[in-house]
Amino acid sequence: MPKFFGGFTNSFSYKGFDVNIFFSFQYGNDLINYNRFLGEKQGQPSSGFAGRFIIESQMDRWTHPGQLTDVPRVTSVGNNYLVEQNSRFLEDGSFLRFRTAALRYTAPQKIVKKLGIKNLSAYISVENLFTWTKYTGQDPEVTVRGSDPFRVAVDYSYTPPVKTYTIGLTASF
Question: What global pTM score does this model have?
Answer without folding.
Answer: 0.73
